[in-house]
């Protein structure tokens, strides 16, 4: 449907388009047109009026009026077709290959349909419950003394993790959603997960959609479509869709790996800490995850699997390793001829970046703190390097010559200390990032290209297109390469 007709034909009775009209106008016109047309079709299953009526109806009456009390279909197995039961006996669907949306299980489901066995066979290691204690007490079988429709201890005693988030029915608090999706991420590191509220539609769908927004940088509309495609009628209320729109706005503004506005190094790392899952926050305390992701992609390109970072167990900070560890490479793991070919590709791109700025690759706005490493695994080397360059020039560099001179002096000191065990420790995170890049690129490229890399370092860290390092970085890279790997043999 053409845009004007779409605009003229929308009724706002069951949509959440108009509360976001001004927000969309702040975007560029093409994005406004695209999002407005899509939003016109993302409607809640229930109107705002109905949602308010349900929310203000006492729980016991809600169950009788809207859920049919003890015969509630969401608490029973009989009404559902086979394709609606990813887990037999339970209204359930796989939304992603690792996230199952389901209605709340009951003690009967657990006993009659061997739910615990089904969870284990499907490698579901965590159950996430979004209900409040005592919620929907008149639906289905009587509640367990735990206040839920089952005993959570049954899951935990069988090696299945249990989480309870307490989301209000038909609603969600955008301020707590970020913490919740981080828990979802953590749970997924253990295995697949199952999420439920009462019906497994409204709150369950909203949490899964929020996770897709945060972890994959999807738009709210795309996330809603994806959830509904897998589990029809999900994400029911206008409030839930409104929450997802606000959550998307927050994530897109603050959760991008490449900032859309000038920002200092420390401020960037602050946002990174806020949006990364807790398991990654310490690893990237001083180094932006996007820098590490670029380095990992390039190292894999040149050395395949013959490289790794070894992290020390003590908590002392060592500038040469920072928090990511010391790079170890098996130089004989890749033939010298292959290594030279791949190294030349990197060097050619660096040469181009020294004289010309390149535009960000398409879809760079979909790179977030969480998914940057996953995205880069499929990107070409030149695309990854161009992205790194654009990221570095987007950050505010040190504001004084003194800070720039400090970085150069640190590289000099580290060069002279290569053969000692003396440790150096600094608080400035941008210095850690500079040293880390030198440590990695001294392995990726050959010595003649060190000078071009040093020129880029001058642009990235000193905001000077004319090389201000005067060979200091080159000397450090030569010393570091010699100390870490010795003389490289080309006999393979």
Automatic annotation (TrEMBL):
<dbReference type="GO" id="GO:0004725">
    <property type="term" value="F:protein tyrosine phosphatase activity"/>
</dbReference>
<keyword id="KW-0378">Hydrolase</keyword>
<dbReference type="InterPro" id="IPR003595">
    <property type="entry name" value="Tyr_Pase_cat"/>
</dbReference>
<feature type="domain" description="Tyrosine specific protein phosphatases">
    <location>
        <begin position="168"/>
        <end position="242"/>
    </location>
</feature>
<dbReference type="InterPro" id="IPR000242">
    <property type="entry name" value="PTP_cat"/>
</dbReference>
<dbReference type="Pfam" id="PF00782">
    <property type="entry name" value="DSPc"/>
</dbReference>
<protein>
    <recommendedName>
        <fullName>Tyrosine specific protein phosphatases domain-containing protein</fullName>
    </recommendedName>
</protein>
<dbReference type="InterPro" id="IPR020422">
    <property type="entry name" value="TYR_PHOSPHATASE_DUAL_dom"/>
</dbReference>
<dbReference type="InterPro" id="IPR016130">
    <property type="entry name" value="Tyr_Pase_AS"/>
</dbReference>
<dbReference type="InterPro" id="IPR000340">
    <property type="entry name" value="Dual-sp_phosphatase_cat-dom"/>
</dbReference>
<feature type="domain" description="Tyrosine-protein phosphatase">
    <location>
        <begin position="160"/>
        <end position="246"/>
    </location>
</feature>
<dbReference type="InterPro" id="IPR000387">
    <property type="entry name" value="Tyr_Pase_dom"/>
</dbReference>
<feature type="domain" description="Tyrosine-protein phosphatase">
    <location>
        <begin position="90"/>
        <end position="253"/>
    </location>
</feature>
<dbReference type="InterPro" id="IPR050561">
    <property type="entry name" value="PTP"/>
</dbReference>
<dbReference type="InterPro" id="IPR029021">
    <property type="entry name" value="Prot-tyrosine_phosphatase-like"/>
</dbReference>
<keyword id="KW-0904">Protein phosphatase</keyword>
């Amino acid at each position: 449907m053409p845009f004007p007709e779409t605009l003229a034909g929308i009724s706002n009775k069951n949509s959440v388009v108009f509360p976001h009209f001004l927000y969309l106008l702040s975007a560029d016109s093409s994005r406004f047109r695209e999002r407005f047309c899509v939003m016109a079709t993302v409607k809640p299953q229930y109107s705002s009026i109905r949602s308010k009526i349900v929310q203000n109806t006492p729980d016991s009456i809600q169950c009788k009026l809207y859920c049919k009390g003890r015969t509630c279909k969401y608490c029973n197995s009989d009404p559902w077709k086979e394709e609606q039961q990813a887990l037999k006996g339970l209204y359930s669907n796989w939304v992603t290959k690792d996230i199952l949306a389901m209605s709340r299980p009951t003690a009967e489901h657990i006993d009659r349909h061997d739910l615990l066995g089904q969870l284990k066979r499907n490698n579901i290691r965590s159950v996430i419950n979004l209900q409040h204690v005592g919620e929907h007490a008149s639906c289905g079988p009587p509640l367990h003394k735990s206040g839920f429709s089952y005993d959570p201890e049954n899951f935990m005693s069988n090696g299945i993790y249990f989480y309870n988030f307490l989301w209000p029915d038909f609603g969600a608090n955008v301020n707590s959603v970020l913490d919740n999706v981080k828990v979802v991420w953590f749970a997924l590191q253990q295995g697949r997960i199952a999420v439920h509220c009462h019906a497994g539609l409204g709150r369950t769908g909203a949490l899964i959609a929020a996770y897709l927004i945060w972890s994959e940088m999807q738009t709210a509309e795309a996330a809603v479509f994806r959830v509904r495609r897998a589990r029809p009628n999900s994400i029911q209320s206008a409030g839930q869709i409104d929450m997802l729109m606000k959550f998307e706005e927050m994530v897109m503004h603050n959760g991008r790996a490449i900032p859309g506005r000038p920002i200092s190094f420390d401020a960037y790392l602050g946002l990174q800490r806020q949006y990364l899952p807790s398991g990654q926050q310490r690893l990237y305390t001083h180094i932006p995850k996007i820098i590490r992701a670029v380095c990992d992609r390039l190292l894999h390109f040149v050395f395949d699997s013959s490289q790794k970072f070894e992290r020390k167990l003590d908590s002392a900070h060592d500038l040469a390793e920072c928090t990511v560890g010391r790079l170890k490479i098996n130089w004989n793991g890749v033939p010298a001829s292959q290594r030279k070919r791949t190294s030349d590709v990197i060097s050619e791109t660096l040469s181009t970046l020294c004289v010309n700025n390149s535009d960000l690759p398409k879809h760079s706005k979909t790179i977030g703190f969480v998914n940057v490493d996953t995205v880069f695994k499929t990107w070409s080397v030149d695309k990854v390097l161009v992205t790194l360059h654009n990221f570095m020039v987007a950050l505010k560099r040190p504001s004084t010559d003194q800070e720039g001179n400090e970085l150069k002096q640190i590289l000099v000191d580290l060069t002279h200390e290569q053969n000692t065990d003396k440790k150096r420790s600094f608080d400035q995170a941008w210095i850690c990032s500079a040293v880390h890049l030198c440590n990695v690129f001294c392995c990726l490229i050959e010595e003649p290209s060190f000078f071009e890399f040093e020129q880029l370092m001058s642009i990235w860290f000193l905001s000077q297109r004319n090389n201000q390092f005067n060979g200091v970085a080159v000397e450090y890279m030569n010393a570091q390469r010699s100390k870490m790997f010795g003389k490289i043999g080309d006999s393979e």
